[in-house]
Amino acid sequence: MTPVVPAAAIILAAGLGTRMRSVLPKAMHPVAGRPMINHLISTCELIFDRIVVVVGPEMPTLEKTVAPHATVVQAERLGTGHAARMAAPLLRDYAGDVAVLYADNPLITAPTIRRLVETRAKVDLALLAMRPADPGRYGRVVQDEAGDVTRIVEWADASEAERAIGLCNAGVVCAPAQDLFRWLDAVGNDNAKGEYYLTDIVDLAVADGRRVVAEEAEEAELAGANSRAELALLEAGMQARLRAAAMAGGATLVAPETVFLSWDTSLGQDVTVGPNVVFGPGVAVEDEVEIRAFSHLEGCTVRSGAIIGPFARLRPGTEVGRGAHVGNFVELKAATLAEGAKANHLSYLGDVTVGAGSNIGAGTITCNYDGLHKHRTEIGAGAFIGSDTALVAPVRVGDRALVAAGSVITEDVPDDALAIARGRQATKPGRGFKGKKKDAS
């Protein structure tokens, strides 16, 4: 969507997330299957024509993750105002507005950011604010009778009357580039932490006689994460949003609170998802598919009318054809099941192509790894693989071929052939239990 006005975004992502006790930068922690900063970047791309990400020193993975967007390094972590100022070499002469956002706000929506930008077009400085259920120690947004912002007061410095204010600062701001960086240059660090705070630009703007307005947003959109517990809350919020979108799109989630989706999960119409199903990244499910309880899907495509599970695992590179069945305790990896193929019980099928209408018996495995390399198995259309069969790849079983139960197949099986590869049964008459006594238990 075309931006309302020329606008750029600075995303602050230099935080280490110390309280998370992790080697990952905070912005790299995943929410719904991808780094939280990528959620924000995807949203910002709908609105801004330039994005600059402020990273910390020695964060090459983060820089790669946000590419192709520009990055600048905050070598010393001296506060949010200092971090935003790091983008000045790239944006100080920008002919438009600049918004400052935070990498750990993955739930913020495009309509909310767009309202911020639209509000800025009417005033000199716009900021986002919220009315949390528990204002706690948030900074309070003080307004005059007209509703304009006069200042932001930190909880520790607030009077009892100011602490009673329900409108709290969310930290996100938007201003013309030249004004923003002029105010940032003037921000001081005369405070207990000796840091440069982004929120101090509000006082500077008011002192300049500029009009400052707060645009309100939902608390849930502005939630951040400084700990694993708060990260879990972000995940819960994202999951609720994804589930709602899936159901609005025509999918049935039997027990929505137990289904976990990835950011890119695609569910068609009249898909039914049972309880305790997990979708990893890269899953596309077409219409009228049933995914039964306790199944796990990742990096796969499921064509219309297929039935998956219960207790099935579909790993990356798998495609399940129209009307195919994948049953309980069946694992597929880099597997293609053509239309109407069935693998209903207790099987591992890796690096395999199964033709249309073929049936894979219980306990079948493809022996696809020789200790050095992976090899493929080809099973033709209309074939029948008996229970407890091991297919030692590379090997091909032809169309309409029959493999006897308990076989170990090491050679190709021609079309329409019967293959039996097992030890011959030896029967010894009179050697059963008759006339024998069992040991006492």
From TrEMBL:
- Which Enzyme Commission number(s) are on file for it? 2.7.7.23, 2.3.1.157
Determine if Cell division is one of this entry's keywords.
no
Source taxonomy: Bacteria, Pseudomonadati, Pseudomonadota, Alphaproteobacteria, Acetobacterales
Task: Give cofactor(s), names only.
Answer: Mg(2+)
Asked whether the keyword Membrane is assigned, the reply is: no
Q: Protein name, please? A: Bifunctional protein GlmU
Which cell locations does it reside in?
Cytoplasm
Question: Can you tell me which residues bind Mg(2+)?
Answer: 104, 226
What keywords tag this UniProt record?
Acyltransferase, Cell shape, Cell wall biogenesis/degradation, Cytoplasm, Magnesium, Metal-binding, Multifunctional enzyme, Nucleotidyltransferase, Peptidoglycan synthesis, Repeat, Transferase
Query: Which reaction equation describes what this protein catalyses?
Result: N-acetyl-alpha-D-glucosamine 1-phosphate + UTP + H(+) = UDP-N-acetyl-alpha-D-glucosamine + diphosphate; alpha-D-glucosamine 1-phosphate + acetyl-CoA = N-acetyl-alpha-D-glucosamine 1-phosphate + CoA + H(+)
Naturally occurring in which organism (per UniProt): Paracraurococcus lichenis
Q: Where is this region: Linker?
A: 229-249
- Top EC group: transferase
Chief place where the protein resides: cytoplasm
Subunit? Homotrimer.
Q: What does the protein in this record do?
A: Catalyzes the last two sequential reactions in the de novo biosynthetic pathway for UDP-N-acetylglucosamine (UDP-GlcNAc). The C-terminal domain catalyzes the transfer of acetyl group from acetyl coenzyme A to glucosamine-1-phosphate (GlcN-1-P) to produce N-acetylglucosamine-1-phosphate (GlcNAc-1-P), which is converted into UDP-GlcNAc by the transfer of uridine 5-monophosphate (from uridine 5-triphosphate), a reaction catalyzed by the N-terminal domain.
| Molecular function GO labels | UDP-N-acetylglucosamine diphosphorylase activity
Where do the annotations place UDP-N-acetyl-alpha-D-glucosamine binding?
12-15, 26, 74, 79-80, 139, 154, 169, 226, 315, 333, 348, 359
Q: Cite the cofactor comment.
A: Binds 1 Mg(2+) ion per subunit.
Pathway, according to UniProt? Nucleotide-sugar biosynthesis; UDP-N-acetyl-alpha-D-glucosamine biosynthesis; UDP-N-acetyl-alpha-D-glucosamine from N-acetyl-alpha-D-glucosamine 1-phosphate: step 1/1; Nucleotide-sugar biosynthesis; UDP-N-acetyl-alpha-D-glucosamine biosynthesis; N-acetyl-alpha-D-glucosamine 1-phosphate from alpha-D-glucosamine 6-phosphate (route II): step 2/2; Bacterial outer membrane biogenesis; LPS lipid A biosynthesis
